[in-house]
Design goal:
Elements lengths: L16 H4 L22 E3 L1 H6 L5 E6 L9 H14 L4 E5 L3 H13 L2 E7 L5 H9 L3 E5 L3 H13 L4 E2 L5 H7 L1 H10 L5 E5 L4 H15 L8 E7 L4 H4 L21 H11 L2 E5 L1 H15 L8 H12 L8 E6 L7 H8 L10 H8 L2
Parallel strand pairs: 2-10, 3-4, 3-6, 4-5, 7-8, 7-10, 8-9
Antiparallel strand pairs: 1-2
Bound molecules: pyridoxal-5'-phosphate.
Pyridoxal-5'-phosphate binds next to helix 9.
C-alpha cells in the first residue's frame, strides 16, 4: 500500500453479523462462521417521501437490499448455515418464494454444502431464480404454492438427513433480530414505530425480539410499536384464518399459512401496534413513489409497509415529530418483470441528431 494515501486510523473492517453480535447469538468459538459479510446495511432518511405523503415525522428505511444476496434473508442464513456446518450436515434444504432460496444457495456454496430448494409453481421473481441457479442449488418447482412446499420440506427435515433452513429453524430468527440492533445503533435510539411486510412472519418476530433484547440490556430506552403489513390477497393473520390460494403481486409475501403466526400476533399485541393489509394497487403505487421520490428501488413486498404508512398518515395515526423506521426487505432488481410492467415503457425512437433529441425533450 502507498503509505502517503493510507488512512492513519483505518476503521475496523466489517466482518458480518455473527462477529459483530456474537454475545447475543447462539454460537460458540467452535462454530465455523460461514459469512458473506452480511449486515451493516444503510439506514436512509427519506424526507421527500414523507413530504409526498403529507407526513410530519422522520422516516428511515433500513435498506436490506444491500445484503450480499440483496435481501434480509442473509442475516438468518449466515447463522443457519454455520450451525448446519457445525452439526456436520451435508445438505441444506428450503421452501421459498425466492429470497430464502437465493440466500440458502449462496451460503451453502460458501460452506461447501449441497443445497436443494423447493419453489412454488409459476410465481418466482426472475432475479431470485437466476440467483439460486447461479449459486448451484438443485432447484425443484412444486406443482403447488409455498405452503405446500414448506410442508414437504418439514417432512424431509424429520428424516434427519437434511438441514431445514426455513425460518421454522429457530436460528434464522436469531440472526434476523440483528437488524433491530443495527437500527438502534445507527439511530442512537429505538424508533417510535417500526413498519415491515409480513409473509411467513419470521421477520416481525425477529425484529420484536431484537428490540426487546436491546431494551432489556439497557442499550435502548424505549420499545417501538410494531406495524406489520400483509397483501390483501394473502392476509391470513388479518383475516384470522389461513388463505387457501394466496394471490398478490408482492410474491415475497404470497403466503397463506405463516409459520410464525403466533410470533407476529405477540409482537403486535405486546408492542401496542397492529397488523393490517393493503391492496395490490396501493402496493404498486408506493413501489413507484419510493423509487421516484427518493431513488430507492425495492421489490414489491417492501412497498406493503410503505402503503400501510400512507394509510396510517391519512388516518392521523402517526403523531408529528415521531421517529419511524421501515424495513426494505429486498432489492427491486430481483423482480424486473413487475418493474417493467409498472413503468409502461414504450421505446421512443428518434433520429440520431441533436435537433431531433432536443425537440423530443422539449427545450
Ligand atoms: C421473506 C421476505 C418477506 C417476508 O418476511 P417473513 O419473515 O416471511 O414475514 C418480505 N419481503 C421480502 C423481500 C422477503 O424476501
Amino acid at each position: 500500500m502507498n503509505p502517503s494515501v493510507a488512512s492513519p486510523n483505518p476503521a475496523p473492517a466489517w466482518q458480518g453479523i455473527i462477529h459483530r453480535y456474537r454475545a447475543r447469538l447462539p454460537v460458540t468459538h467452535e462454530t465455523p462462521v460461514v459469512t458473506l459479510l452480511e449486515g451493516n446495511t444503510p439506514l436512509i432518511r427519506v424526507d421527500n417521501f414523507v413530504r409526498a405523503i403529507g407526513g410530519d415525522f422522520s422516516l428511515y428505511l433500513k435498506y436490506e437490499a444491500m445484503n450480499p444476496t440483496a435481501s434480509f434473508k442473509d442475516r438468518g442464513m449466515t447463522l443457519a448455515v454455520s450451525k448446519a456446518k457445525e452439526r456436520g450436515a451435508s445438505v441444506v434444504i428450503c421452501a421459498s418464494t425466492g429470497n430464502t432460496s437465493a440466500s440458502a444457495a449462496a451460503y451453502a456454496a460458501r460452506a461447501g454444502l449441497k443445497c436443494v430448494v423447493l419453489l412454488p409453481h409459476g410465481k418466482i421473481a426472475l432475479g431470485k431464480l437466476a440467483q439460486a441457479l447461479m449459486y448451484g442449488a438443485q432447484t425443484l418447482t412444486i406443482e403447488g404454492n409455498f405452503d405446500m412446499a414448506l410442508r414437504i420440506v418439514r417432512e424431509l427435515g424429520e428424516t434427519g438427513q437434511v438441514e431445514v433452513v426455513n425460518s421454522v429453524n429457530p436460528v434464522r430468527i436469531e440472526g434476523q433480530k440483528t437488524a433491530s440492533f443495527e437500527i438502534c445503533d445507527q439511530l442512537g435510539r429505538a424508533p417510535d414505530f417500526h413498519f415491515l411486510p409480513v409473509g411467513n412472519a419470521g421477520n416481525i418476530t425477529a425484529y420484536w425480539r431484537g428490540f426487546r433484547e436491546y431494551y432489556a440490556a439497557g442499550l435502548s430506552t424505549r420499545l417501538p410499536q410494531m406495524h406489520g403489513w400483509q397483501a390483501a390477497g394473502a392476509a391470513p393473520i388479518v383475516d384470522g384464518q389461513p388463505v387457501e390460494n394466496p394471490q398478490t403481486v408482492a410474491t415475497a409475501i404470497r403466503i397463506g399459512n405463516p409459520a410464525s403466526w403466533s410470533g407476529a400476533t405477540a409482537a403486535v399485541k405486546e408492542s401496542g401496534g397492529r397488523i393490517d393489509k393493503v391492496t395490490d394497487d396501493e402496493i404498486l403505487n408506493a413501489y413507484r413513489l419510493i423509487a421516484r421520490s427518493e431513488g430507492i428501488f425495492v421489490e414489491p413486498a417492501c412497498a406493503a409497509p410503505l402503503a400501510g404508512l400512507i394509510r396510517s398518515v391519512r388516518a392521523g395515526l402517526i403523531p408529528s415529530g415521531s421517529v419511524v423506521t421501515a424495513t426494505m426487505t429486498g432489492h427491486g432488481l430481483k423482480d424486473p418483470d413487475t418493474a417493467m410492467s409498472q413503468s409502461e415503457f414504450k421505446p421512443t425512437v428518434v433520429a440520431a441528431t441533436f435537433e431531433a433529441v432536443r425537440a423530443k425533450i422539449g427545450f
